[in-house]
Structures are given as structure tokens and as C-alpha cells.
Amino acid sequence: GGPNAGGLAEPGAKGYNPAEVKANGGGVPVSNYSLQPQFMGREGSKDVFFDPAELGKLQGTGDLEARVGGGSGYEAPGGVNAYYAKPMPDVEVKGEPVEALAFLEELQARERLVKDKDGKVATVLGIGPCIGEDAPGDIQHVVLSSPPGFEYVEGQSLSVTPGGKDKKGKPHKPRLYSIASTRYGDLCDGKTVSLCVRRAEFSDPATGEADPAKAGVCSGQLCDAKVGDTFKVAGPVGKTMLLPADPSADVIMVGTGTGVAPFRGFCHRLFMEPTPAAHTFAGTAWLFLGVPVSAGLLYPEEFEAMKRRGGGQLRVTTAISREQQNAGGGRKYVQDCLREEGVEVFNRVNAGGSIYFCGLKGMMPGILEAMESVAKEQGLSWEETLNGWKKNKQWHVEVY
């Protein structure tokens, strides 16, 4: 339904509304999480699961078929509490206690619980395009089962080893992908992990045609995956992109393209899931996202839902390079947005907030130049400011 269907929370309401969470990327797969045409456009289908009886039981409730078939209109018998087998603390929401999603709240950021050499099998549970048909390239959202022994927190990465052999006849080396879901996963049961994958393609400069000989092996396999396919995974990896421990600290996120992946996880945790973390978050989350065209905006419906729930706590600033102009009349990129909003960004980080960057490494020179110009306009030493942010662990960069 529309934004007000199913009794969704009013803007600013922090109350947990399971229908809204499920309709916007959490709790149940959205309609396009299947490559099978007969299921496209449906709110939910149990067929996005490889084996519903084994993989889809929600903390032992066994109500997958009714839940997924009912889409965002489904309500579990017994209410929200029926989703979870373990007792969990209540969270006060406008004076009314709500069962909190809390069975993974104690997870710490640990690395390589599963080593590459011991990679475990993850099954594709769902897959669907992240961008519109008019956008260049191919970006897929891939939902994988989380294998035994693999646990992660927001901001970490997953290692995926593609199948087959390289040109020398040796097994392929693993590739790292930023995780795009929260520790609870897109089904809120702690048993899945999601990736946002761009198909790596290289075009001939002379003809503009894609050169299949130089296509990305792992990204191609992931983007072409069907429900039920398996991949060897390991990890998690990374402690660079973790959310601040202080729930009052601002979170400023700067990403280009699939660099939005960890920020999707951040925002689902802070605004969509009924966790103590979401309840206690008192800062502002501000996303700067750069894409080439409007159809290339990733997860737009989800971010709109999160903005409604955030009631001003979530801001989204976009730079659509082929459709917007910067102050000089050229194409607008994320660094131009940072330059325009620079004073407020600096004030928020200097007040204790953290700033994160994720995307292609080529975005960083322009960003650093923009930040330096903002510092100079305020009479600040950029070198001293940056060193201070790094020392205080407020500056987080993960580029590839």
C-alpha cells in the first residue's frame, strides 16, 4: 500500500510498527527479491526461499508461509512477541512497552570467525535489482543465509569466494563486500546477511562496448545468482566502519553507488528495527549519496520510510551528477554537497559526531579537497582538524 497503509507510524513516532518494517526491507523480502518472473510485483512469496521448512522458520515459530504470503499486511498470532523465541526486554515507547528485538544486542565486532580457508556455504535466499532500468550498470541486492559460526555487526564486510578456477587453473581468491544489512538481517531473525553488488564491467574506450574478458568474476556470479545457488563465504572483516558507542553522537554518512551498503545497515538499525539501539539513538543521521541518475538511487523507498520514522533525525542529501549542477555549473558530486553543507558538517563532527565514507577510492581526492576548502573558510587548519578527528576515532573510510 501507500505510505499510510496498514496503520504506519506517523512521522517522528518511534513506536515499532511491524507492517512498516516488513514493507520497507525488513521482516519479509520485498517483492523483487526473486528472479522468477511469475513472482515479480508480488508483495512476498515463499519461493524466494530455497527451503522454507528449513531456512525460513522464524525463531522456531514455523509461520513462514502465512507471514510471507500475507506480505506487509500479515500479523502474527500473539502479536510481535510471536516472532521471537527468546524472552527480550521491553522498550518504552510513548509510555507503552514494546517487545524489543534484542537477542543479538550483545554481539561485539569480531573478525574472521570463519577464515577464508574454512569458508562455509551460504545459500541465496533472495535477489533483486537495486536500481531502475534507466540507470547504467547492474546492481543487485542479494540475501544470503548466514552460515553457522558467522556473526557480524553493522559496518563489517563479508568475504565471498567465486566458483570455478582462474586463468592459471587455481581457485579464485576471495572478494570482500560491505554488508548491507543489520546483525538481525533482512528477515529480522539473525540468520541472513545481505549484500549490495554492482556487476563489474569494463568497456572498450574506442567502442564503448563491454569487454566480457575483463568482467568481474565474483560480482558477475552474484548478480546472476538464482535462489538456491550457494557461495563459499567467510568473515566477518573490518572494525573501521562501526557505529559510535555514544547513542547521542551524530552519524554522517558519505557514499557513492554501492558504497551505500553499510549505511543501509546503519539506518535500519537506528530507525526501523525495534531494538534498544534504535530506542536510545538521540543524534542525527545524515546521508550524502552520489549516483549518476535518479533511477540509480539505491533503496529509495526504504530511506523514505526511515525518514518518516526518524521524524527529522534522518536527513538524506543526494548528488545526481548527470541531472544536477554544482555552484560552478558543472556536474554535482558528493563533494559539492559537502562543500555546500560544510559548516554544519564540521560543527557536528567537532561536537562529537562521526563521519563515514564508503565507495570507490576515486571519490576521496575530491572529498578531501572540498573538506580542506571548508576548513580554510572557517579559519581552521585542515591538517590539525583531520588529525584530531582520526585520533578521536571520528573519521572512518572504507573505499575500494
From TrEMBL:
Matching entries from Gene3D superfamilies are given as: Nucleotide-binding domain of ferredoxin-NADP reductase (FNR) module, Translation factors
TM helices/strands, residue ranges: 277-299
InterPro entries found in the cross-reference section: FAD-bd_FR_type, Flavoprot_Pyr_Nucl_cyt_Rdtase, FNR, FNR_nucleotide-bd, OxRdtase_FAD/NAD-bd, Riboflavin_synthase-like_b-brl
Q: Return the EC number.
A: 1.18.1.2
- Output the Pfam families linked to this UniProt entry: NAD_binding_1
Top-level EC class: oxidoreductase
Cofactor(s) required, per the database record: FAD
Keywords in alphabetical order: FAD, Flavoprotein, Membrane, NADP, Oxidoreductase, Transmembrane, Transmembrane helix
Limits of the FAD-binding FR-type domain: 117-243
Q: Does the keyword Transmembrane apply?
A: yes
Q: Which reaction does it catalyse?
A: 2 reduced [2Fe-2S]-[ferredoxin] + NADP(+) + H(+) = 2 oxidized [2Fe-2S]-[ferredoxin] + NADPH
For this protein, the record's PANTHER family field holds: PTHR43314
Q: Which family does it belong to?
A: Belongs to the ferredoxin--NADP reductase type 1 family.
Q: What is this protein called?
A: ferredoxin--NADP(+) reductase
Tell me what organism the protein belongs to. Answer: Tetraparma gracilis
